[in-house]
Amino acid sequence: MAATAFSKRGFLARITHLAACFALFAASSALAQTPHWVGSWMASPCAPADAEPRRDQLSLNGDTVRQIVHLSIGGVAVRLHFSNTFGTAPLLIRSVRVAAAGKGSEIAGDGDKAATFSGKPEVSIAPGESVVSDAVNLPANADGNLAVSFFVPEKVTAPAVHYTALQTSWVAPGEQTSAAELKGAHKITVDLILTAVDVASRTSPGAIVALGSSTTDGAHSTPNANHRWTDFLAERLRTTDAANAPAVLNAGISGNRVLNDGRGAWGPIFGESALKRFHRDVLAQSGLKWIFVFEGGNDIRQAAGNPEVIQPQQLIKAFQLMAREAHARKLKLIVATITPSQGTNPKDETPAWEATRLEVNKWILTTKDIDGAVDFDKAAADPQRPARLLPAYDSGDHLHPNDAGYKAMGESIDLHLFQ
């Protein structure tokens, strides 16, 4: 009888233990499926003075902006980031709405949803600051376009701008944010004030932020086609595992340099240096897990005698500094080799340009200071003339790839780097 009682107690103990294990497993599974914020799209802001070629698109005064953005991953909700990074006065926006984008300035799907800021329909952004909206209960699709509409009621001549958007957006007179199609709208090819879109994802492991210059920005790729190398990388990640794909955020600024901002030998150099904007444009992104750096060519291509001409070790130290910053936050830093550019500036080219590029690339491919390397140089170069782009990948200026070149670069990346 005692043995039977002991057996029952043991049986009950085992049942209790199993129940606890199942409860722990269920709790862990629920935690894994809890939505978390991951950046799905971004645009690095530049000072308006840097965007002189697009100055005609910058002035706003009682206008509705409908910004079209392309998401790398989807989610069950979204939130929006707006910036007055380089403004000199407060910037007021109101009546913010978000929807799936349709044709032209139209919205699609089941209509739009309002975005608020601490429950309010408008927000004033102080100079040098950014704001994030409340969560918007709008499911968003991976590889889809969102239309983010907002009204700027007061005159603004210097909004934060990303000038190489390669995406058509719209500005229309008056308050039309809830309109299915904007009336009297004109096209713009810049990103204004909106600098990031996060999605609430249950499965994405996080975001990859690509820090770079024009070849990351997608210069000379087909507008509205999403043919930057970052787009091809995002497509490969979604194809490999759609549910668990990392997001890919493009923090490229055409003309950007690692060490210096301001103006260089070839005219405007857009945006602050990569080192200066590293915290704002990279480390501050939601769900950041991996940093992918593809910079340095604009530092190297300076006329002989220019006081800003850099030596290989200067670029190497900058990459090492980024790696230390990343590792301090338990992030991984990947660096890509610098692609060839011979023939871009034939009057100013010196042998030192190529020598510096090759020395930096050798360090990238052999160092243990970073968490991975990608050989964009090998992917894009002409094997017969390795200092030049492969003709089939050359957009025509001997510096920027065409769509095929960007695809080759995106396909050269080992996806195991993001496991």
Automatic annotation (TrEMBL):
One of its GO terms (molecular function) is hydrolase activity, acting on ester bonds. Keywords: Signal. Residues 1-32 form the signal peptide. Residues 210-408 form the SGNH hydrolase-type esterase domain. It comes from the Bacteria. The keyword Repeat does not apply. It holds the Pfam family Lipase_GDSL_2. The keyword Cell division does not apply. This is Lysophospholipase L1.
